[in-house]
Design goal:
- Keywords: Hydrolase, Metal-binding, Metalloprotease, Protease, Zinc.
- The protein has 346 residues and is mainly alpha-helical.
- It has 2 domains: 69 residues; 185 residues, no CATH class.
- The protein is built from 10 helices and 5 strands.
- A 3-stranded mixed beta sheet has the order 3-5-4. A two-stranded antiparallel sheet has the order 1-2.
- The chain is rod-shaped and about 205 Å long.
């Protein structure tokens, strides 16, 4: 009985012990579980707090960036405003200066245009010449007057001298031409002395040409073959061209610019190299109209009559035809038709 009681007590004690251990274990588990929950809660709170702090920092950065952007924008606006004020201040002063400059410029332009107009007007008046044909009475404005044409002819003469071989050392032919030239010196109607230089050209062509400055170019063949009276006829014919300004009438006013340039440099031969002088020169060798040639023959007869050369216009034509026929006998000679062409230096 006692053993049963002891056994029962032992069993009860063991049961109580197990129950105590289980209770203790349960308590420990609950305690541990509670602790873990607290830690999780703390971790969650810390995480939320960190997120909140991170969000606050980001918001602070955004606010700082916005504030910096606003400050920068305000600074730029301020700088723009300052630049605008400076520009307006400068523009105000520049506008005054610009208006003054425009006023001066317009005055200078107007004055310069007026001076140029006066300059060209004076040059046109000084260089050109009104001409009346002594035979038919026609009037024409020539692009160059006699005085300047003589200077121009001197430059052209220099070109001819350079292009041809001059043989003035042939005294017999030179003196023959000089004698013919001197016979015309007393003819005052031409209003200029016939005392230019004589240039004998080493050519077999028919060349007899006289420039407005009085220079005479004659080929060796003409000076040798023609008689003195025939040379007088040629000289009278050439002088009629100069007196009637026949070749000058061929020069168009499009050459006025070149003539003006040469006149400004006093028709110096050096400057002539830089001007299309060949264009002007050609007008002294261009063919003349039949009407001009006939008028020249009438004037040549008048000149020869003053020199006591007993020739009427018909006789003059006869002598001219005789001279042309002489050279037509030679097919290699330069054929000169006085009814169609002016003497040429080609």
């Amino acid at each position: 009985m006692i053993k049963k009681i002891l056994k029962t007590q032992m069993q009860l004690g063991s049961s109580f012990m197990k129950m105590g251990i289980q209770a203790n274990m349960k308590n420990n588990f609950c305690s541990q579980n509670s602790s873990n929950e607290k830690k999780d809660q703390q971790n969650q709170e810390q995480s939320e707090q960190q997120k909140k702090q991170q969000q606050e920092r980001e918001e602070a950065k955004e606010r700082a960036a916005k504030e910096a952007q606003i400050r920068k924008q305000k600074k730029e606006e301020k700088e723009i405003e300052e630049l605008k004020n400076q520009y307006e201040a400068q523009n105000s002063s520049f506008s005054t200066a610009s208006q003054f400059y425009k006023l001066i410029k317009s005055k200078l332009l107007l004055g310069g245009t007026g001076l140029l107009a006066l300059f060209f007007g004076y040059q046109f008046y000084d260089i050109t010449e009104s001409n009346v044909d002594p035979v038919d009475g026609t009037k024409k404005i020539l692009p160059i007057n006699k005085n300047y044409e003589k200077k121009l002819a001197s430059s052209i003469s220099g070109i001819f001298q350079g292009e041809n071989k001059i043989i003035n050392d042939n005294k017999r032919l030179y003196n023959k031409m000089k004698k013919v030239q001197q016979k015309f010196n007393r003819y005052e109607k031409l209003n200029f002395p016939v005392n230019g230089n004589i240039y004998l050209i080493d050519k077999d062509d028919f060349v007899f040409f006289m420039l407005p400055n009085g220079d005479i170019f004659v080929s060796r063949r003409v000076a040798f073959d023609l008689k003195e009276i025939e040379l007088q006829i040629l000289m009278g014919y050439e002088l009629s061209h100069l007196y009637m300004r026949s070749s000058t009438k061929n020069i168009p006013f499009s050459q006025f610019g070149n003539i003006l340039l040469m006149k400004l440099f006093d028709f110096t031969e050096l400057f002539s190299q830089f001007v299309p002088l060949q264009e002007i020169r050609q007008y002294y060798t261009l063919p003349l109209s039949r009407e001009q040639e006939n008028n020249n023959m009438i004037m040549a007869a008048d000149i020869l009559d003053e020199l006591d050369v007993e020739l009427d216009p018909e006789s003059l034509k006869f002598y001219l035809r005789d001279i042309c026929s002489y050279f037509k006998k030679d097919p290699n000679a330069y054929i000169l038709d006085f009814y169609k062409k002016h003497p040429n230096l080609l």
